Amino acid sequence: MTWRLHLAGLVALAGYGFLAWQANSAEARPALAIALVCGWVGLGLGAWRVAESVQARWIVVGWAVLFRLLGVGTEPSWEDDYHRYLWDGYQMMETGNPYARAPLEFFGMDSPIPPAAAAALDGINHPDFKTIYGPIAQIVFGVAAWLGLGSLGVLKLGLVVIEGLGWWVARGVLRWRGWILVWWCPLAVTETAFAGHPDAIGVAGLAVILATWKYGQAAGSAVSGVFSAAVKPWGWVIAPFVVDRFGWKSAGAMLASVLAIYGWFLMQGSGAEWPALVAMSQRFEYNSTGFALLGFFLPDEWARRVSFGLTVGFAGWMWLRWRQGDRTLWPPIALILGVAFWWAPVVNPWYALWLLPSLAVRPSGWGVGVLVAIPLAYTHGWGQDAGGAVVSYVHPWWTRPAEVGLVIAIAVGAAWWRRSDAARQ
What's the predicted TM-score (pTM) here? Predict the structure, then answer.
């Protein structure tokens, strides 16, 4: 019954169309909420009682492309990180090393900067910090700048293409509900096609590993793992599992990939994204949960150390548990990342996209709950702004309880549904 699938697509499309209309207005954040609700309703209708077929899979992809095309041409007023991406792309194209200098050093300089790059420079938040985005992200930024300097639309189109290629490579691994989740996930649509966050590149790398892992391809898993990690450090979570399953040859392939990707910057005396990431981890806090709780009992510095230790300790414990079983099974990446997000000082909504590859092959109620709940982080500055314009990154008291409560509610609901479904059978 493909009519149900088309109906579901229309519901989601209506929400994304409204967001595209309001994206650059003062009502952007309420429109974002409406789009997310419509998107999840559409996804639910599409995943529920629609028989899988080749035709249905193509319909899902067709609607997913339409959703994303609506976002590509917009400029999100609820986000300003994209200015950094555009500036990094200009620096990558001009100097080959966007890590050399902080944007603040370019303010007031006499040397000419193209107007499109200057506009991006003016919009960068925290210009005193060097960039935190890895070399693979920088290559994408640079290519986008070469194709259209200062064009957010060109960059977002590239991200959408990379995202789609990742899921296409993984198509043989994904069952129906995993397929529709990755293509129609509202968080993926809004954070990639509308906001232009480069996490989609790293997620695509993990999606490729879904296929290489299934077919026992050691080199492909190793190279794709480093590709993913060279976007953001979340990608490194797969590394110990790849080495454990495929042996030290895969470790050699990883090392070679690291040298190939980072070598250019290391030869220039640059630490690439790591100095800025370390500085960020020591200073910032946003939308934290476990870390915020630790802050009631510990000084800030110690809370950061403890939260990091708890995250690494849990990851190590999960690795030890996994290696005692069948090591051809997909590792507990989602659970490790979920705990990392719980303890992290900074948890932006787009971080949750890294859960998608694991949830596509091993769905969980809590994981979907995180995807649904985490956009509540956009309630920062509630009551202190005019519509969508950001004036404060402080959350109202109810944001974190609402996020946690929604995750718990969806997890409980999913468990009840599975139990009821099993009883009916």
Answer: 0.94
